[in-house]
Amino acid sequence: xxxxxxxxxxxxxxxxxxxxxxxxxxxxxxxxxxxxxxxxxxxxxxxxxxxxxxxxxxxxxxxxxxxxxxxxxxxxxxxxxxxxxxxxxxxxxxxxxxxxxxxxxxxxxxxxxxxxxxxxxxxxxxxxxxxxxxxxxxxxxxxxxxxxxxxxxxxxxxxxxxxxxxxxxxxxxxxxxxxxxxxxxxxxxxxxxxxxxxxxxxxxxxxxxxxxxxxxxxxxxxxxxxxxxxxxxxxxxxxxxxxxxxxxxxxxxxxxxxxxxxxxxxxxxxxxxxxxxxxxxxxxxxxxxxxxxxxxxxxxxxxxxxxxxxxxxxxxxxxxxxxxxxxxxxxxxxxxxxxxxxxxxxxxxxxxxxxxxxxxxxxxxxxxxxxxxxxxxxxxxxxxxxxxxxxxxxxxxxxxxxxxxxxxxxxxxxxxxxxxxxxxxxxxxxxxxxxxxxxxxxxxxxxxxxxxxxxxxxxxxxxxxxxxxxxxxxxxxxx
Length: 479
Ligand code: BG6
Known about the structure:
Elements: E1 9-13, H1 16-19, H2 65-79, E2 83-87, H3 90-93, H4 104-119, E3 123-129, H5 135-141, H6 147-163, E4 170-174, H7 186-193, H8 203-228, E5 233-239, E6 243-245, H9 250-259, H10 261-272, H11 277-286, H12 296-302, E7 307-311, E8 316-318, E9 338-339, H13 355-369, E10 373-377, H14 395-413, E11 419-422, E12 445-447, E13 459-461, H15 463-473
Parallel strand pairs: 1-2, 1-11, 2-3, 3-4, 4-5, 5-7, 6-8, 7-10, 10-11
Antiparallel strand pairs: 8-9, 12-13
Helix pairs in contact: 2-4, 6-8, 8-12, 13-14
Bound molecules: 6-O-phosphono-beta-D-glucopyranose.
6-O-phosphono-beta-D-glucopyranose (BG6) is lined by residues 15, 18, 175-176, 239, 311, 377, 381, 425, 432-435, 440.
């Protein structure tokens, strides 16, 4: 018997701000990404006040999908993708976020994309906001600090739900909504929620207010979506970097249990429809005054998600008596007591490579929530070299994907997890989120562009392209 369901959603994953480019085309407004410069491993991206002439903003051009979507979607079709997870740039639909009427040209652009996907029988899977917010809402309203932004988000969601209701079935609200739990790096709160912190503010208190507003926005969007089309399948989307205890010392076990609340807070609310006890206790103990409006309980209860989409790249470890610097732990979610896992190798960017951690994650999430799961990001960011014959032998990437797919199949076949699909991240090379680089490549299709924005943008199939095509054809039987 086949191990995976015949309708398993094999696909690829992308995000509007990282690949579309065309940042000022088609009436698009500026988004929070359009003022983010390029950084590199160990050097954070800068958020500038305005667009400064002497700085490079890699998301402005992305890989120019905006003007090349036909060519790219044809390649996705050739690869055999059954779905494509991408996002809608909020700023194409509402350029400033607070307009009364949407921008027709932006809506038409996504009609074109969706129609082109459907032409190749590729099911669109859409994220409403993948680290995406109009700059105007961030600067003038304070992003999701401000409850008005909830209304603007819901209007945006309603607009696109109505427009694409007969063509799109799978939706998710906010990408990696829990990413912002790491307040050590300003780009997370900025991209998730359009928020910057004042020096005298307690980041945690701000974060939970913002989180509440965003959870309300997500729940309202789910309810609206189901009203517009009851056949919609709407999920949340979280980043899951499991936190292991360093040892069987009970103090390490407890440390990991507490640290994992950072991972579970958002999905606990989005799946169950109410706040978990550990969060309420923490608000009480810290004296946090999180503003709720009348009716918020009902909104959360009525807007629970139907599946959990998540990204998985790596795992991390905490040790109760370790104190490490924030700089050392940027990739570990800023955990103050994380240590390297002695059993695991890391990528060039310091991301721990741990396929068993994916099987573990699938078990943990499924057993905690009993909802279908969807792996909507997983992949290996590394540099690529062309061989003399013009091909790209990306065996390391193939090995990474193979081991992670194997672990996922085990979770389905041996552990009984309900898994909807698997969409590797950055199916075509795109701009890296954390560093803004191009050389950190995830793609199965190479794009000729470098960190400074030079290159012809030519697309070349890597060896992984052909390998993944066969994986899809055999529904994961041949890896
Ligand atoms: C996830 C994001 O955090 O990881 C993506 O949802 C991002 O937007 C991906 O690109 C990989 O991160 P990076 O920094 O290697 O691009």
